[in-house]
Amino acid sequence: MGVGLGIDIFDVQPDFRTLIRDHRDGFDFLEVYSRGDWEHTDEPFSEIPADVPRTYHHEGLDPVGPSLCPDDTIAGCAKNQKLLNPPWTVEELAVRHIDGRYTDFFFPAILNADCVKATVANLRELAKRIPGPLLPENAPYEFVVGDMHLFDFMNEVAHGAECGLVLDLGHVWSYQLCVGKGDQPDDQISRLDLSRIIEVHLAGARIEDYEGGRIYRDLHGAGPIPEESLFLLRQLLGKLPNLKAITIEVEDASEAVAVAQARQVREIVQQIRPTWLEGVHVA
Ligand SMILES: [Fe+2]
Fewer CB within 10 Å, N or C, the chain? Predict the structure, then answer.
């Protein structure tokens, strides 16, 4: 798939139509996000030309919850998947709904054996009902609950559910900040089964200081990509044998900033793993 841009189809900026019309040489594919909506997606999805490769980022399946999400949410995801026909669908290892109420942030997976068990069961059921592979992504952490390391949790989920993974590099750093390893973004990375990583995410972020530590806040396109995320990209690029896509999540960026961030990432890939780009760059 190459280097792509993660966009929200309801955003005024960046407008995916403008990106496709005026900046088509700036990205290889789009990762399409609809905030989990499936009732208003027919029209905007139909405006993405068939020759623009795409992946789909759903939200709201809540795969790390104690039980399977409601049927209408699964049907909604399946509907969007059929409309877009992406090679895979991405979903966070988080919950957005607690007892039917929408949470203000991604409530990340509790890192323990019970949560692994529930997540594997949910992902196995979802795989039966959603066409195409569903790839779970490590969510942003503002706090950590549980006795497992994030990378062990991800391994057990991927192996138990027999699925690939999306590794969000900013979210890796968010976890490291929570566990006191903020100065070593790649701490313990060798524990992670890197062969499972199909896609990598990068995004702009802001780091907030508080008494005793720092918290990572996703800004997506409304801020620069942290150096720590780019450090992780440089460290990992040569170690991901099944990497197929690098997505820069650019919601809220201007179109110019979006393609500038894609260029910044593409230059790193060109330095470290140029053969990976062969045959995918549209320009
Ligand atoms: Fe992400």
Answer: C
